[in-house]
Design goal:
32 strands; about 5% helix; mainly beta; about 500 residues; 4-stranded antiparallel sheet
């Protein structure tokens, strides 16, 4: 079967992950946005039987005086454990296999989100009824969907919105990030293309931030509103306000929205007009106002961007109002973890960590999770074990301590999303887009300084269980995890359009 991605003229970007959806409540919480937003750090319960920090205490600290030989011994033991550690007894289930255009979505690449009734919401990059649009013929311009649990254990899908419904796709196209939900059930998200502004460098337009509101009466259509079209502000080299948002949004307690764009902005990176930015959208009586918090590649010369470039993940708030995120490139090396701190004169960027060498891990694409001031995220390539398969970073920005847990391809490779902390606060859970027994990706757990593989994708004939998961996981109240695989599923004779899955560890 041919992959739907073979027809795409624009590559699918890696998606940002939600931070603590379904986890224990944070120190601060917006009254406007529902529990699924990502606005604060998770506090470790004092009664936790085994804290995440304790389970990671054996990991080496690269800023300490440990010798290189000690690190090599650690990783030799680690590789033996990681290669042999597989979880038995877990249950994996495909909840929905996408059918593709024109009646269903295709290529789910973003995180899922729950509402208060147990329904799941998400996006697909392609598919939908706009398959005839010139911008995305014949695969469709993307959808927003809802999955509702039935009494017999099955799930029912409803396509809530088909992108590129409006002429010239002013309503957006190609949503690759997950959604944010508020207390009224309104959904917020981003699209990589479309909008009311024309991109200088291409015909897809520059992307949007949108709101999707439920109908007043059951059975009526949902209403989509574009809150902002990127490239509304142009300078001599491109879109001064950025373009191509690929990240999931985050909200603060006042209802302001935060996210990133992967390209352009007011930085100096040659070829695309800048290195992307971090933005804030604020509601006002006259509409939403966009404010750029930071333009990446604002320092350095040429393609050297010591402050980072190309963010594909969103941002995470800590309890003090600081924002944390990652850039895949730049940072004085090949990617970074950064902090943005608010002040009287604006926001100030500080680099928490940047990798100069592949053995430390490079090219982070996921969001940052925070536990008691310690940061966890993934790197998509590199690693100090000879496999260059990516892995998980653990960072303490206050103490400037760093540790790395590399994947070895057998237990996963190239994670494109961040990790989440379970509600018991005892383990990290995530996905890898490749690797595993079939090379089609895996679901993993980190509850000690090693990996446990919970599931290997493409374990079923024809990969009907899915393959290539680029999104992270979301946890329900019972401790089950849900996610998407971008490819695989039940094929329509030509394409295999991806799945939504559930796994019980």
């Amino acid at each position: 079967m041919r992959s739907l991605r073979e027809l795409l003229s624009k590559p699918v970007a890696a998606i940002e992950q939600k931070g603590f959806f379904g986890a224990a409540g944070p120190a601060q919480r917006s009254s406007h946005f529902a529990q699924n937003d990502n606005i604060s750090e998770l506090q470790t319960p004092a009664t936790s039987p085994k804290s995440l920090l304790t389970s990671w205490r054996l990991m080496y600290d690269s800023s300490s005086a440990l010798g290189e030989s000690m690190k090599q011994v650690f990783f030799c033991v680690l590789l033996a454990l990681a290669s042999c550690s597989f979880s038995l007894g877990q249950t994996y289930k495909v909840l929905w296999s996408f059918g593709g255009a024109p009646n269903d979505g295709a290529l789910p690449a973003g995180n899922l989100i729950f509402d208060g009734k147990g329904n799941l919401y998400g996006t697909t990059r392609n598919g939908g009824s706009s398959a005839g649009a010139a911008y995305c013929y014949p695969v469709g311009c993307g959808t927003v969907f809802e999955l509702s649990p039935d009494s017999d254990g099955t799930w029912t899908e409803t396509v809530l919105y088909n992108f590129c419904t409006l002429q010239n796709c002013t309503d957006g196209l190609f949503p690759v990030a997950g959604l944010l939900i508020d207390a009224s059930g309104d959904l917020y998200g981003t699209t990589q293309g479309g909008g009311a502004s024309s991109c200088i460098a291409g015909s897809y337009n520059c992307g949007t931030v949108f709101e999707l509101s439920p109908p007043a009466s059951l059975g009526e259509p949902w209403t989509e509103t574009v809150l902002y079209s990127f490239c509304s502000v142009q300078n001599q080299i491109g879109c001064a306000d950025g373009n191509t948002p690929s990240s999931q949004l985050t909200a603060d307690a006042s209802g302001n929205l935060y996210g990133t764009t992967s390209f352009e902005g007011a930085g100096t990176y040659p070829g695309n007009g800048g290195g992307g930015n971090v933005f804030e959208l604020s509601p006002t009586p006259s509409g939403w106002i966009m404010n750029t918090l930071y333009n990446f590649c604002s320092t350095g010369q040429g393609k050297f961007c010591p402050d980072g470039s190309y963010p594909v993940a969103g941002v995470t708030f800590d309890g003090s109002g600081n924002l944390y995120g990652t850039t895949e490139k730049g940072g004085g090396g090949i990617g970074e973890v950064y902090e943005l701190s608010p002040g009287a004169s604006g926001w100030t960027l500080s680099i928490v960590y940047t990798s100069h060498f592949g053995k430390q891990g490079i090219e982070p694409q996921g969001t940052v999770s925070i536990v008691n001031g310690t940061l966890y995220t993934t790197f998509s390539s590199g690693g100090n074990n000879g496999f260059a398969a990516g892995g998980v970073w653990r960072l303490n920005p206050t103490q400037r301590r760093f540790s790395s847990l590399p994947l070895n391809y057998h237990n996963g490779a190239n994670p494109a999303a961040g990790v989440i902390v379970n509600s018991a606060n005892t383990a990290l859970f995530g996905t890898s887009s490749e690797g595993g027994t079939a090379g089609a990706g895996a679901i993993f757990e980190v509850s000690s300084p090693s990996y446990t593989v919970l599931y290997n994708f493409c374990s079923q004939p024809g990969c009907t269980d899915g393959e290539y998961p680029v999104a992270g996981l979301v946890e329900d109240q019972a401790g089950n995890f849900y996610g998407t695989a971008e490819l695989g599923g039940i094929c329509d004779g030509i394409y295999c359009n991806g799945v939504v899955f559930e796994i019980t560890p």
